[in-house]
């Protein structure tokens, strides 16, 4: 690929973008990130992504020299410099604590963060779920206990997604020790029960506060749909009328099978469809 990427203030060819082997993001996953969707060459939910980034930095005591306007300008510049084929895709941005001699002890309080960002081509809106959806397998959630912080410590999520894929599934939903579903490997998880309630786990250290989730709940409210934020079990999920996931990189995508049990009719359910369409419409209107 021949992208122009951003690294510490400079726009350069991707093959020229180099970072020190002493970057703490590389050595300790001492870094946080955001992924923002781009539709019609405009940014979706951008202010909320920057809010969450600030919170991730605060939780890890990483120096926050983030300036909203300059990050917005950088994201816009990356869109301009890299032509998205369908005018849609993703922008990945990572902020690490910085480059310093390897040590478990974080001694120096003035380490300068390393910031980089790049674009990724992805079709987001024009996906036909009329005859398709995701097959999910449930797996134990053995990640650390601060899943509310968006760190780059993602090894378990990538290994378990790969294992799911090898077993013929599209993704895994991660369950806690009490049998409740926390979230997907890189998305939030929802079911719709027999009374048309949309159920998703309430926010805590057990899951990432998804930005798509936040907007989606507002959209559901506008549509006068009933939302219950509470834990739900695998059993409840298997009995549900509809199920779906949300993330910046999928927006909203239907789940049609959980642990080899069919959900709904094997395609996008009516409530999921309305949510997806309305989410896309409202997000486009509010994009920047
Ligand atoms: N949960 C996890 C573990 C994630 O990694 C992600 C996104 O990467 C999400 C949920 C969804 O978050 P968002 O809607 O902000 O993309």
What does this structure look like?
It is a single chain. The protein has 288 residues and is of the alpha+beta class. It has two domains: 4-121, Aminotransferase class 4, branched-chain amino acid transferase, N-terminal domain (D-amino Acid Aminotransferase, Chain A, domain 1, 2-Layer Sandwich), CATH 3.30.470.10; 134-286, Alpha-Beta Barrel (D-amino Acid Aminotransferase, Chain A, domain 2). 28% of the residues lie in helices and 27% in strands. It has helices spanning 24-28, 46-59, 68-81, 155-166, 211-222, 234-239, 270-286, and strands at 4-7, 10-13, 31-39, 42-43, 89-96, 114-121, 134-140, 171-175, 181-184, 188-192, 198-200, 227-229, 242-247, 251-258, 261-262. Strands 7, 8, 9, 10, 11, 12, 13, 14 and 15 form a nine-stranded mixed β-sheet that branches. Strands 2-1-6-5-3-4 form a six-stranded antiparallel β-sheet. The longest helix is centred in the C-terminal third of the chain and has 17 residues, at 270-286. The chain is globular and about 55 Å long. The relative contact order is 0.15. The mean pLDDT is 96. The structure holds pyridoxal-5'-phosphate (PLP). Pyridoxal-5'-phosphate (PLP) binds at residues 35, 183, 186-188, 208, 210-213, 246-248.
List the helices and strands and how they pair.
Blueprint: E1 4-7, E2 10-13, H1 24-28, E3 31-39, E4 42-43, H2 46-59, H3 68-81, E5 89-96, E6 114-121, E7 134-140, H4 155-166, E8 171-175, E9 181-184, E10 188-192, E11 198-200, H5 211-222, E12 227-229, H6 234-239, E13 242-247, E14 251-258, E15 261-262, H7 270-286
Parallel strand pairs: 7-8, 7-14, 11-12
Antiparallel strand pairs: 1-2, 1-6, 3-4, 3-5, 5-6, 8-9, 10-11, 10-13, 13-14, 14-15
Helix pairs in contact: 5-7
The structure holds pyridoxal-5'-phosphate.
